[in-house]
């Protein structure tokens, strides 16, 4: 079987822990090369993960004719530059979330990929797991009635890591960029429409370059439905989604982190009682790689169009503006 040949731009933790092993476990992909600005680091990572080629610069990797697609797990402020350069080199792009720092940047990235005739996808791995399609089926069936609201959380506690790129404002640090983007994208996915307005409140920490270490928000959708969410990097760990309906609700105890044999299941509550929806244990990162590969080969369309990344970034922009200005922000579509 033909394999999509991947190159990895950078040795970020998410790449080493999750995305590279996911590609290696996928049906369609093989990791051919990895690059770092430190050749020794890329060589050590390549040896650790059984990757054939290591480069000491990103330029060398995107110039490699044996690479079909690149995965970009670089700090957020580098996403735009290397997405555009990879596209110009004829590589499909899977870019880690958030796609960039602003909506304008993401629009430029999408346009560059379209102009070069390559695919662009934002790496929200959780959306590729079939449990979200099952949740959408339950909502569409009317079993939980009309949706009245969604609540999402994603928090973790890591304020002491002084060198963490998440704490550098100019590099796109902050909790809404890093983890708040997940419940925002989940609500858009489950409701199947784009939000109209946002109001947020945030804790901007002087100890962490004034990035938002915690944010709580209200995201308004049409039909008098809203997402309430909170995200944080200085709080106890959780990652949940609840969909509240007039006749029942869906609870997802581990909504975004790669599910284990047990934690991927979700709970449905109705008048008939409580039931656990059991879902297969599948590697979300492998599914994400497969979806891009099948699209690259023309066998299926991209699971999520590039415009999806633009629309999610619009909400993130509005969240940050609202928190800074302490005001309600209308989102222009």
UniProtKB/TrEMBL annotation:
This is Gfo/Idh/MocA family oxidoreductase. It holds the Pfam family GFO_IDH_MocA. Keywords: Oxidoreductase. It comes from the Bacteria. Belongs to the Gfo/Idh/MocA family. PANTHER family: OXIDOREDUCTASES, TRANS-1,2-DIHYDROBENZENE-1,2-DIOL DEHYDROGENASE. The lineage of its organism: Bacteria, Bacillati, Bacillota, Bacilli, Bacillales. Residues 132-251 form the GFO/IDH/MocA-like oxidoreductase domain. The keyword Cell membrane does not apply. It comes from Paenibacillus sedimenti. One of its GO terms (molecular function) is nucleotide binding. Residues 4-122 form the Gfo/Idh/MocA-like oxidoreductase N-terminal domain.
């Amino acid at each position: 079987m033909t394999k999509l040949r991947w190159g990895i731009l950078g040795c970020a933790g998410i790449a080493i822990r999750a995305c590279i092993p996911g590609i290696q476990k996928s049906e369609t992909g093989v990791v051919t090369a990895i690059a770092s600005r430190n050749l020794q680091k890329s060589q050590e990572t390549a040896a650790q993960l059984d990757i054939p080629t290591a480069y000491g610069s990103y330029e060398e990797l995107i110039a490699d004719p044996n690479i079909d697609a690149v995965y970009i797990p670089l700090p957020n402020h580098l996403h735009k530059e290397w997405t555009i350069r990879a596209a110009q080199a004829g590589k499909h792009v899977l870019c880690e979330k958030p796609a960039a720092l602003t909506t304008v940047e993401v629009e430029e990235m999408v346009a560059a990929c379209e102009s070069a005739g390559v695919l662009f996808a934002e790496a929200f791995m959780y959306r590729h797991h079939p449990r979200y399609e099952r949740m959408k089926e339950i909502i569409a069936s009317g079993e939980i009635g009309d949706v009245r609201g969604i609540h999402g959380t994603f928090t973790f506690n890591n304020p002491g890591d002084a060198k963490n790129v998440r704490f550098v404002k100019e590099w796109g640090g902050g909790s809404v960029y890093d983890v708040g983007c997940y419940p925002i994208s989940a609500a858009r996915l489950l409701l199947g429409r784009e939000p109209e307005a946002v109001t947020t409140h945030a804790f901007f920490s002087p100890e962490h370059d004034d990035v938002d270490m915690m944010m709580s928000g209200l995201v308004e959708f049409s039909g008098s439905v809203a997402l309430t969410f909170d995200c944080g990097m200085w709080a106890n760990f959780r990652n949940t989604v609840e969909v509240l309906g007039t006749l029942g609700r869906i609870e997802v105890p581990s909504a975004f982190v790669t599910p284990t044999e047990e934690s991927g299941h979700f709970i449905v509550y109705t008048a008939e009682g409580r039931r656990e929806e059991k879902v297969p244990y599948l590697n979300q990162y492998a599914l994400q790689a497969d979806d891009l590969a099948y699209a690259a080969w023309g066998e299926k369309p991209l699971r999520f169009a590039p415009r999806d990344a633009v629309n999610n970034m619009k909400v993130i922009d509005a969240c940050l503006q609202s928190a800074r200005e302490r005001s309600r922000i209308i989102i222009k579509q």
